[in-house]
């Protein structure tokens, strides 16, 4: 499943872009896969970002409040958006499996919106950022312990 | 014209007229008051001897045994009865194949502890089955009900459940569950779609074709419409489907739509929208247009459920930090907090017949358990214990049972229990299911 998701993403994302933060980023220090040589470079993504990465931000249980680490990651994401002015993202809000489904859909949306608002306040055009909540329906780590839950309580950035 | 052979219709009418003359009051099953009291208090199950149907013709026997099995399962499902095997000498004389003319051995019934006896005769004419049923109070020998049921041999379930429904209604005084429907989410291979089935999960058919994610089904009180959430095209939409015509109203407002619930006595429903920037509850018509906004608060407001009269709405709010259940009076606009125990109380479900509200609590251990509480906050009662995650309670239309999902044996499955928590058992459906919604039949239902 993860492998499939990964493969799909590497096919869809414009190949010159580095995209970190799909399902494999649960492990620290994930390096973006070497992009396959493009048939013709997409005109919209002619800048290869250096030094910044579009990464997920994580939350505490039943919380949509940003931690210092989350704010730091969002600053990087703002930089990435500035470096890639033609890119748009969908910010997905996710929850861990604890708690109940319905409430978690609302909580997931608040996480995504919190991330979006932070970046909008930092100057990113809100029209470049959409949000969607999946509640606890799309966990990145299928485990049933705090290690997995911590990875699943996140706002995930998917380049459109 | 052969006067010695009157038409079938004439004979049927004659029999019916005689029947009415002899048993005028018995065609309508009057509720038995003392049993209603017992079943309401949930003191015990009614000890019932259910005698297998007798049939004179050997070719009717297979129908009789199939009907027996359906009646046994159906009455067992209600949790109202302790079904006792009939003693061998239950018929002590008279005409075995004529209800009303055979002698029931009440001494034998009391020796096995029965309080109620039910049995009958099955007869087949062409493709029509005639089931002549009689029910006695085993202690006094009083006839409680005598009724003739006719039905097609190809729909034994319907025939059997009509009798079950009458029997249950006699003891509870309420319309039975047997013509109710359930909707639920079925998960297979990471995908979730909504299914519709009879009350016990029988005959499940898929309703949504979202291709990935459909959630939180809510059956309208009359069982004719289904509201749910679907992620068609990666965006959540609220859909309201007319189950008779398959017409779908799709509500595509910006932001989330969460967990719709129908308002009893109206064609309205409530759901959470976030188009104004925050998750708030709104009341809308079944064509998707908003009637009015119900909440105004900076935190999450979700999961509405309405009182039987539709005047009050319980819902979940995180306005005090952790999620708790509140009650909004739709007439006065006042809001009162309902739950104080525990840090995570969600998924309220208001009983369609009373003032009880079922909900779930996530406990420190990580377990999710189902509780009931009176609408005034008194009478808190825990119904599930030490059984992992028990979620999404939904009441039966008569308020005697609660359906829910549980992963106590591995994957998530639908379970039912009596309203006091006794008699918990799985529906036994294949695969994984969650988020059941039981139709409530607040509106007048068609005859079965």
Topology:
The complex is a heterodimer of chains A (160) and B (448).
Chain A: H1 2-12, E1 57-58, H2 68-83, E2 89-94, H3 101-121, E3 129-135, H4 146-152, E4 154-159
Parallel strand pairs in A: 2-3
Antiparallel strand pairs in A: 1-4, 2-4
Chain B: H1 8-22, H2 33-41, E1 46-50, H3 61-78, E2 81-84, E3 91-94, E4 102-104, H4 106-111, E5 116-125, E6 128-137, E7 143-152, H5 156-172, E8 181-188, E9 191-198, E10 205-206, E11 214-219, E12 225-230, E13 237-242, E14 248-251, E15 257-262, E16 268-273, E17 280-285, E18 290-293, E19 301-306, E20 312-317, E21 324-329, E22 335-337, E23 345-350, E24 356-362, E25 368-374, E26 381-382, E27 390-395, E28 401-406, E29 413-418, E30 425-426, E31 432-438
Parallel strand pairs in B: 1-2, 1-5
Antiparallel strand pairs in B: 3-4, 5-6, 6-7, 8-9, 8-31, 9-10, 11-12, 12-13, 13-14, 15-16, 16-17, 17-18, 19-20, 20-21, 21-22, 23-24, 24-25, 25-26, 27-28, 28-29, 29-30
What is the first-to-last residue Cα distance of chain B?
Answer: 38 Å
Structural class of chain A: alpha+beta
The number of helical segments of chain B is 5
Q: In the CATH hierarchy, what is the class of the largest domain in chain B? A: Mainly Beta
Q: Which protein chains are joined by the largest interface, and how many residues does each one contribute?
A: A-B, 20 and 36 residues
The CATH architecture classification of chain A is 2-Layer Sandwich
According to CATH, what is the class of chain A? Alpha Beta
Query: What is the CATH homology-level superfamily of chain A?
Result: OmpA-like domain
Calculate Rg of chain B over CA atoms.
Answer: 24 Å
Strand content of chain A: 5-15%
Major sheet of chain B: order of its strands? 2-1-5-6-7
Bulk shape of chain B: elongated
CATH architecture of the largest domain in chain B: 6 Propeller
Q: Give the termini distance of chain A in whole angstroms.
A: 21 Å
CATH H-level superfamily title of the largest domain in chain B: TolB, C-terminal domain
Alpha-beta content class of chain B: mainly beta
CATH topology of chain A: 60s Ribosomal Protein L30, Chain: A
Low-confidence stretches of chain A: 10-49
CATH level-3 fold name of the largest domain in chain B: Neuraminidase
Sequence of strands across the biggest β-sheet of chain A: 1-4-2-3
């Amino acid at each position: 499943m993860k492998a499939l998701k990964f493969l799909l993403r590497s096919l869809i994302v414009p190949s010159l872009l580095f995209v970190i933060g799909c399902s494999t980023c649960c492990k620290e220090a994930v390096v973006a896969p070497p992009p396959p040589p493009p048939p013709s470079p997409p005109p919209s993504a002619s800048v290869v970002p250096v030094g910044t990465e579009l990464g997920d931000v994580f939350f505490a249980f039943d919380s949509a409040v940003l931690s210092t680490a989350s704010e730091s990651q969002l600053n990087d994401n703002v930089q990435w958006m500035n470096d890639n002015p033609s890119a748009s993202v969908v910010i997905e809000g996710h929850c861990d499996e604890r708690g109940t489904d319905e409430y978690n859909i609302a909580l997931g949306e608040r996480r995504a919106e919190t991330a979006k608002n932070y970046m909008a306040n930092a100057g990113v055009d809100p029209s470049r950022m959409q949000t969607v909540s999946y509640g606890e329906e799309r966990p990145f780590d299928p485990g049933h312990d705090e290690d997995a839950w911590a990875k699943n309580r996140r706002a995930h950035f998917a380049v459109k | 014209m052969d006067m010695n052979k009157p038409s079938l219709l004439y004979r049927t009418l004659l029999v019916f007229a005689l029947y009415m003359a002899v048993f005028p009051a018995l065609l309508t099953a009057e509720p038995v008051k003392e049993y209603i009291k017992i079943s309401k208090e949930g003191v015990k199950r009614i000890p019932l001897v259910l005698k297998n149907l007798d049939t004179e013709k050997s070719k009717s026997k297979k129908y009789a045994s199939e009907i027996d099995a359906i009646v046994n399962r159906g009455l067992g499902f209600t949790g109202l009865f302790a079904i006792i095997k009939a003693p061998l000498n239950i018929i002590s004389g008279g005409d075995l194949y004529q209800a009303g003319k055979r002698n029931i051995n009440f001494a034998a019934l009391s020796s096995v502890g029965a309080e109620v006896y039910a049995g009958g005769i099955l007869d087949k004419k062409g493709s029509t089955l005639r089931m002549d049923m009689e029910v006695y109070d085993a202690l006094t020998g009083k006839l409680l009900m005598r009724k003739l049921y006719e039905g097609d041999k190809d729909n034994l379930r319907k025939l059997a459940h009509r009798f079950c429904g009458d029997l249950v209604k006699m003891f509870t005084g309420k319309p039975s569950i047997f013509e109710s429907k359930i909707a639920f989410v079925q998960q297979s291979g990471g995908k979730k779609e909504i299914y519709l089935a009879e009350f016990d999960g029988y005959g499940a058919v898929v309703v949504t074709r979202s291709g990935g994610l459909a959630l939180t089904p809510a059956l309208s009180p009359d069982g004719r419409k289904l509201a749910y959430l679907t992620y068609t095209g990666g965006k959540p939409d609220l859909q309201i489907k007319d189950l008779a015509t398959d017409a779908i109203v799709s509500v595509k407002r910006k932001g989330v739509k969460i967990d719709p619930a129908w308002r009893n006595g109206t064609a309205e429903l409530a759901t959470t929208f976030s188009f104004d920037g925050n998750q708030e509850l709104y009341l809308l018509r079944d064509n998707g247009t908003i009637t009015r906004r119900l909440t105004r608060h900076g935190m999450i407001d979700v999961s509405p459920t309405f009182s039987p009269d539709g005047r009050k709405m319980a819902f979940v709010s995180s306005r005090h930090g952790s999620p708790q259940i509140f009650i909004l009076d739709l007439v006065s606009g006042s809001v009162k907090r309902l739950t104080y125990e525990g840090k995570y109380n969600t998924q309220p479900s208001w009983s369609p017949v009373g003032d009880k509200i079922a909900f779930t609590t996530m406990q420190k251990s990580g377990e999710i358990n189902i509780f009931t509480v009176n609408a005034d906050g008194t009478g808190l009662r825990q119904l599930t214990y030490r059984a992992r995650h028990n979620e999404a309670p939904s009441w039966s239309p008569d308020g005697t049972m609660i359906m829910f999902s549980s992963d106590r044996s591995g994957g998530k499955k639908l379970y039912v229990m009596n309203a006091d928590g006794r008699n918990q058992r799985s529906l036994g459906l294949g695969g994984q299911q969650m988020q059941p919604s039981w139709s409530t039949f607040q509106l007048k239902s068609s005859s079965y």
